Amino acid sequence: MSLAQRRILLGVSGGIAAYKSCELVRRLRDLDADVRVVMTESATHFVSATTFQALSGQSVRVSLWDAQAEAAMGHIELARWAERILIAPASADILARLAHGLADDLLTTLCLASAAPLYVAPAMNQQMWAHASVQTNVETLRQRGVHLLGPASGDQACGDVGNGRMLEAHELRDALAASFGDGSLAGLKVIVSAGPTYEDIDPVRFIGNRSSGRMGFAVAQAAALAGAQVTLVAGPVSLATPAGVTQRIDVRSAAQMHAEVLAAAAQADIYIAAAAVGDFRPNEVSAHKLKKTCDGAGLSLQLSENPDILASLSAQPTHPFLVGFAAETQDVASYAKQKLSRKGLDMIAANQVGEGLGFEAADNALSVYWADGSIDLPRVAKAELARQLITQVAQRYRASRAG
Fold first, then answer.
1. pTM, whole model, 2 decimals?
2. Which of 164, 162, 141 has its CA nearest to residue 151?
3. DSSP string spanning 281-321?
4. Is the peptide bond before 151 cis (omega within 30 degrees of 0)?
5. Strand locations in 102-241, DSSP E?
6. pLDDT (tens digit per residue) in 74-130
7. DSSP category for residue 45
8. Which domains does the chain have, with CATH numbers?
9. Which residues are known to be catalytic?
């Protein structure tokens, strides 16, 4: 992953999340990006221009009325210089001004005067983010081609919990890196399914599994970083959409995931089945909460098999390059190879699950198999493991098409 010599204009608007933008500048510079910072007047109340100047190694602009800089139409020069403009944090105020085409300060003027793609990373109180006027402004910007990064959900500086947190610095950096689309999957359309599926028993109970979705989301982001146009089909998880992902489709049940993946697969080059799809579903779903009888009789459920997404795709005359996942508690290699053959897959990534392994863990390890080869990817953080896996997928995909 590299941003060497890429010209990034970082806009910082007023909000407590402005402190995260200091880390963002550092991470962009670590990848050799050329970073220029423009701050709103409000942003200077949270972080000083001197801090951003020290981190970026470049002078920081705040005012449109800087006589020295504007003697040579400095704002137009900056607008032409930028390859990407990222506003982080993007407050409710600046989203509104961008949506209405205002140019009443340096940052909004630059956005109107530049042909560079514009990215915004919203950061605000959860109630502000949910307000109808903010959502209307966001939708207006989306329709104009502005790229929305986040927000994430979690604890907020005000003490609230919910949507509105600015994405972390590394996520924003990765989104910008992915936007240049010059990686090993450049020009390809990739579907990634991730997370668990839930099968309802009644309005309050369901059959599910312990998948957190972290590995699948890391794979989706790694594919985006490699230049792919990524569609993420996600089960019920509380994870922010990875930076760089083109489309996210949320589902709950295995049948819903089956339908969405098959619909998207018609236009896809690669499908990576990282979701932990439930094998069974109840034959009947009660319309009301099932009550205990208190006589010790227990409850019996009749289950039926869910449709198999990979098997359905491999049975079609034409289908994407298929990459399966196998999470096993024993005989990992044996079960993975059987699944590779039985389902007609191009590749399969297998891992052992159990206490401290696989589900809900921050790291993982994979053994990857294909018809005439294999490779072991040792235990590392899931983001790094996903990048290594995508490298293998890209190599095998190119090899299969070259033959």
1. 0.67
2. 164
3. EES---SSPPPP-SSS------EEEPP-HHHHHHTSSS--E
4. yes
5. 118-122, 147-148, 152-155, 161-165, 189-194, 199-200, 206-207, 229-234
6. 678 889 999 999 999 999 999 999 999 999 899 999 999 998 999 999 999 889 999
7. G
8. 7-179 (3.40.50.1950), 189-402 (3.40.50.10300)
9. 158
